[in-house]
Amino acid sequence: MDPEAVISKLREIAPALQAEYRFAHLGVFGSVARGEFTPDSDVDIFIAFEPGERYTLMTLAKIVNALEAALGMTVDIVTDHPGLRPHFRAIVERDLIRVA
Q1: Does the pTM exceed 0.85?
Q2: pLDDT digit string (tens) for 6-15?
Q3: Does residue 57 register a pLDDT over 90?
Q4: Is the pLDDT of residue 64 over 90?
Q5: Which of 32, 45, 48, 74 has the most crowded Cβ, counting Cβ within 10 A?
Q6: Is-contact 35 3, C-beta < 8 A?
Q7: pLDDT at 50 over 90
Q8: Which residue range(s) make up the domain with 59?
Q9: Is 73 helix (H, G, I), strand (E, B) or coil?
Q10: Which stretch of DSSP H or E encloses residue 79?
Q11: DSSP 3-state assignment of 72?
């Protein structure tokens, strides 16, 4: 799957995931966003939940499983939280393509 197809598929499935898991935003960063995606690449996802929305590792695992099933490839997920290191946040924000 090429980067444009990954982004298109994410845009297609994001509304249902957003309704079920109540996140505010979902985006892709890393090799997919930079157009450097290869067959060995994974898909890096950045997710921000609604303010005050609680989520667990089980919630994140369910989201990852749904994304991997839809895309047919490995997904890594990063959540927007206060402990995210500024340097890493800057990298994510530089590449981020918001899909939901």
Answers
A1: yes
A2: 999 999 999 9
A3: yes
A4: yes
A5: 32
A6: yes
A7: no
A8: 3-98
A9: coil
A10: strand 75-79
A11: coil
- Token couple for 1: 């799957």
Report the run of H or E that residue 5 belongs to, with start and end: helix 3-21
> pLDDT digits over 72-92, tens only?
999 999 999 888 999 999 999
Q: Is 98 helix (H, G, I), strand (E, B) or coil?
A: strand
Q: What is the CATH number of the domain that holds 51?
A: 3.30.460.10
User: Per the structure, how many domains does the chain have?
Assistant: 1
Q: Give the three-state DSSP class for 2.
A: coil
DSSP labels for 22-62?
Answer: -EEEEEEETHHHHT---TT--EEEEEEEPTT----HHHHHH
Structure-block tokens of residue 95: 């590449």
